[in-house]
Amino acid sequence: MLSWFSAIDAQLIARLQSHKLHHALLLSGPSGLGKHAYLPELAQAILCQSKHSRCGTCQSCQLFAAGSHPDFYMIQSDKQIGVDDVRQGLEKLQGHAQLQQNKCLIIHAADTMTESAANALLKTLEEPTNNTFIILSASSARLLPTILSRCEKLTLPLASVSEIQSWLTTEHNLSANEALVNAYATPFKVLAALEDSSGLTFAEFSDDIQAIQTGNLLPLHFGQKWQSKAIECIGWLQHYYLQQTKLKMGTADYTYFAQKLKLSTLTASKMHHAGINKALLLSELLSQ
């Protein structure tokens, strides 16, 4: 169990054991938080035959661990979730549970469902079969209002810097300073950055910002270098300007960094426009 989910997990399990858990849950949180790891753990508890405790020894838990539980189905896709994916998952929920307990369907990244896929899910959300639980995860609000209205919406807690650092050390034998953790924000993004030895890194970004400040790097060259990671880079710049704004509170430089923070937010909104010159946008932001 990821430590930052412990509190909300305890609440959900208590509601499950008292038969007060909603049949359709939408668990939201940013990408890289660990939703993909947590949802199956919640499903195991829902299906466990020993007071929903994830006992690990009952028939349900053993089948779950083996990946062959007859009353569990999971939908996931690297791109979009289509209507056929949803229909196949819903077929698994028809009829009585084979283990005479609950049935559970997980839909990872439900915000990537096509409109037809979401519509296929609606009837089951409205009229679920007995002892059926549907758990959806999402990293954005791109879901049909009809889906949102039929689910209990829960926002997963973010991991603190210390929780991320402890998890990296304990589970992966890796370390990250506070600046790196803040730059990537979520645990699995920090982990991916530490394990990725190729490409541009936050450490190199920090060095380049210092080089601009000392006149050893032109903003134009910075923009050209970082345009392939412009969206991630603009997020780092926003965080940098926010930190500087806090540090410069009450000084002559406060207004400058506050303006930079506002400009970086405006620049971020332009980064997703098709055909935009990302190198130029980065260069202009750093030149102003």
UniProtKB/TrEMBL annotation:
Q: Which InterPro entries match?
A: DNA_Rep/Repair_Clamp_Loader, P-loop_NTPase
Q: Which GO terms describe its molecular function?
A: DNA-directed DNA polymerase activity
Class of the enzyme per the UniProt entry, highest EC level: transferase
Which domain of life, per UniProt? Bacteria
Under which EC number(s) is this enzyme classified? 2.7.7.7
- GO cellular component assignments: DNA polymerase III complex
Mind listing the UniProt keywords for this protein, alphabetically?
Answer: DNA-directed DNA polymerase, Nucleotidyltransferase, Transferase
What this protein is called in its record is DNA-directed DNA polymerase
Tell me the Gene Ontology biological-process terms attached to this UniProt entry: DNA-templated DNA replication
| Reaction equations catalysed | DNA(n) + a 2'-deoxyribonucleoside 5'-triphosphate = DNA(n+1) + diphosphate
